[in-house]
Write a structure and sequence with these properties.
Elements (H helix, E strand, L loop, with lengths): L1 H16 L14 E2 L7 E2 L2 E5 L31 E2 L5 E10 L7 E4 L11 E6 L5 E3 L3 E2 L18 E2 L9 E5 L15 E8 L32 E2 L1 E4 L15 E3 L6 E16 L4 E14 L6 E7 L2 E7 L1
Antiparallel strand pairs: 1-11, 2-14, 3-5, 4-13, 5-12, 6-11, 6-14, 7-8, 7-12, 9-10, 15-16, 16-17, 16-18, 18-19
Length: 315
Amino acid sequence: MNKVFILLFVSLSYIVNAQFAPGVGLDGSQALYKDSVVFKFWASACSAKIGWLNIADKNLGKPTVGDIQSVLGKAGTNGVLSIGDAGEAIVTFDYPISNGEGPDFAVFENGFNNSFLELAFVEVSSDGIHFVRFPATSLSDTSVQLDNNAAMDATKLNNLAGKYKANYGTPFDLEELKDSVGLNLKAITHIKILDVVGSINPMFGSRDAKNNLINDPYPTPYPSAGFDLDAVGVIHSEALGLEEGTIPVSIFPNPSTGIFKINTPGENRVEVYSVKGENVFQHNFLNTTQVDLTAFPKGMYFVVVNGVGSKIVVE
């Protein structure tokens, strides 16, 4: 019985004191600088539901900093969009994101330093309807409410956007969601950012995957209230770089009426995905093949040949 108690105590101690990657500039940090060569492209469209200056007093109204254009493109170039208490933004891309080795994308916020961090949950989708959330962890103390003088510790935070200061992205690895139902890890088309309400009041506060309240600066009843979304950078995509490959690939006509040809030397494999991430066509071919999408709706599709790809429009 004593041995069981000791093992339980050790296990609980490990959980309470568990540490994750530290802040920018510290050994073991996983922060990704905006100019890193790992980023292949950035969010190209955004929609948002703006939250509140203070969710406990909605009479104060909503934040006014930024707009959806602020989120587009490279981090540090277009300002930020403040989504407010419990607000959310959904970003999309010219190409679907895929699960590769290590982190697959990163979310950027504009925190001034390693201590004042405004946090958000991150969810992904292959169709824009069904979203899956990364399991977030916050081991921060919740006995005292953090305010604008917050001294936060990144080693107590995991899978929460905003963990790193401005110009440094928080990475996310799709491999963590590999067992999720209804998610195509080869074709993530939408990323949702949801503001964490950092109140330690259970009536208003957000909770992590273990049901712990998440303590971050609250309230912040200013024009820039809540999570300030700067950008989302993509690291891995299977639908990239046909024109950059060493083997020439020709896809024509583009736009098409739904029937187009692919020419490339040797043995090849083509896969075609809808913008919802659905695999609508796949075929192995030698040198040349014809693809027929006339049975599918008009719009944009992603053509992936031998792991790299491009967009085609069906009119």
